[in-house]
Amino acid sequence: MGKFKTSVTAVAVVMALGACSGQPSSESQTMAETPVASAQSAKYENVLLQEFKGPYGGVPAFDQMQLEDLKPALEKAMALQLEEIEAIANNPDAPTFENTIVEMERAGAELDRVFTYYGIWSSNKSSPEFRKIQAEMSPKLSAFFTKITQNEKLFERVKSVYESDALKSLTDEEQRITWMIYNNFARNGATLDGEAKKRYAEINNELATLHTKFANNVLADEENYVTYITEDQLDGLPQSFINAIKTDDGKYAIANTRSSMDPFLTYSTNRELREKVWSTYYNRGDNADEFDNNELIKQILTLRDERVELLGYEDYATWRLEDRMAKTPENAMDLMMKVWPAAIARVEEEVADMQAIADKEGADITIQPWDYRFYAEKVRKAKYDLDSNEVKQYLQLDKLREAMFYVAGRLFDFNFTPVEEGKVPVFHPDVKVWEVTDKATGEHIGLWYLDPFARQGKRSGAWATTYRSYTTFDGKKTVLSSNNSNFVKGAEGEPTLISWDDAETYFHEFGHALHFLASDVEYPTSHSGVRDYTEFQSQLLERWLTTDEVIDQYLVHYETGEPIPDELVKKIKKASTFNEGFKTTEYLASAIMDLKYHTTDPAKIDPDTFEREELKKLDMPEEVVMRHRSPHFGHVFSGEGYAAAYYGYMWAEVLTADASEAFAEAPGGFYDEEVGDRLVKYLFSVRNAMDPAEAYRKFRGRDAKVEALMRDRGFPLPEESQSDSDSE
């Protein structure tokens, strides 16, 4: 993420997505603290403000972070950046790229560093004490970012550079970041006057508070609603899962997270308990108590709508998508509605298969949402003779990590070497660190941090972030990347075994990390993502999990060490589109609802009723629920990164399926050197320094087409001609 952060993106920033500035590093400096870092660090007693010190161009002092330092660090860092902004805005010299845009890129180094620590507290080790600070500081941070966006002198200087003849003499990247910075101002209230500008700032403050409260309510429900079961209620559960959920006092705890809920619903033979665990999970934020989010949703939608009206937009989604690949809500919805009919038709087939098995077994039930995973597993066994638990025995977390390193070595020429424990500070004993180097030259590329396991205070799901991004405009800064997951840790002395879906997620998030590590751009703003494109690279990397090279070398039995049998591999590949109706429908339901929320007058929305009625209009299958129901849809309501943009995963999936076919058609398959070189050059290294549509065309030679996605999921192609259904 670039140094210029608008008020609208403030909440996303404080959720640990901000990039950090570090000291210039060279091969000779990576292993020792630099004198420059020592001198600059002496300016601040507060460690959260200090330059990163130590090896590898400097690293965050995670071992020294103290929560009492956070609030004063944020306040000091904001003050420092405002001083820098005022100096830029009031520069008596005529505006130029160097004295305006470059200086803005340089500003805010201290705040970027504080956000690195803020993000760890927010996502990896939250606590009631932190959440109190977060609630207090979120509106202040929003006001701070709004103050920058509404700095009229600063905007006039940016506008002057953007409209100058000199712009044409700049590099392509410099022209693009100038446009992005100007566009950020123009789209976020800089052109407003008087009362409208004041109200815009007030709305941002109110939204910051509501977003934070929404997220904390979901986290509270995840922490407060744990389902404890007894030994006589373990029937059907794999032993590895039983070992993982056993508590120190001999109980068995089903945490209210997807990583616990999913396997329990897949294997437990206790239907009553399955319903309880399902209900507990899908009712997060919807329990009519102090943590209920329904009223917050309405408030958030109302404020977002009012804010974009001030800018002259019809609705929030129109404003949001204007600078995305989709361009308009209609284009995004059109893509999803091409896929939706095939998805729900497939669900009908899947449910029929499940009901047939339930009837044959004399279960005397009608398939319900809490039965879907359980009977889908039975269908998988019956139809494909494929047992997910059998597959799991070959999916060891450590071996899959080695597989990811192998893929990174083949495609990117990266080498991953474990960093000696204690050499680089970490924020939890589970976190491990690797140095990434160029295989051919040995050049230091960066570090990769891994925080794989679920624990109290850690938000659910999986995500990737950076603690420092690659830039060269102000001295070379190397990458500090991080992957974070919520796998259920194996029992003491046993490997952590994960499902096939979790293995795909592991590769997915590593794709984000490779996107960070492979970057070759000059400026921080070039790291700001286009949301319906940023998931593409990570989704694409999932495809290497099923390559023969990975399967043959890294999928080995956790007890015997024997490679996964060819027969089992054939079953996995044969079943590759199994349950695709469920997966596509639960995702699309969330993405479609997101757009509907942001294209409908909020005055007409009661969230609980709106969700139910709109899904009914779509003929949503009763046996499937939204992947993220509205009251816990954190992507959309705990910040604005994915608001009116959750469709982006599907948009990126079109690119992914199309790009996968490019590899499949190549002589060297998924490890073809020529296609791999184009992959790195146009799809990974450029970040947002090039228009994504142009970058994809350079890789593929044309725009991506939706037919590839339909083929990939085993869906029938839409009847209409595909010549007008390109994703770009």
TrEMBL record:
Domain of life of the organism encoding this protein: Bacteria
Enzyme class, first EC level, given as a word: hydrolase
KW Nucleus (keyword) present: no
Reaction catalysis annotation: Hydrolysis of oligopeptides, with broad specificity. Gly or Ala commonly occur as P1 or P1' residues, but more distant residues are also important, as is shown by the fact that Z-Gly-Pro-Gly-|-Gly-Pro-Ala is cleaved, but not Z-(Gly)(5)
Entry cofactors: Zn(2+)
EC number: 3.4.24.70
Alphabetical UniProt keywords: Hydrolase, Metal-binding, Metalloprotease, Protease, Signal, Zinc
Domain Oligopeptidase A N-terminal: 78-197
Signal peptide: 1-21
InterPro entries per the UniProt record, alphabetical: M3A_DCP, MetalloPept_cat_dom_sf, Neurolysin/TOP_dom2, Neurolysin/TOP_N, OpdA_N, Pept_M3A_M3B, Pept_M3A_M3B_dom
Cofactor: how bound: Binds 1 zinc ion.
UniProt cross-references to Pfam families, sorted A to Z: Peptidase_M3, TOP_N
Domain Peptidase M3A/M3B catalytic: from-to ranges: 264-713
Family (UniProt): Belongs to the peptidase M3 family.
UniProt-recorded name of the protein: oligopeptidase A
Originating organism: Alteromonas salexigens
Lineage: Bacteria, Pseudomonadati, Pseudomonadota, Gammaproteobacteria, Alteromonadales
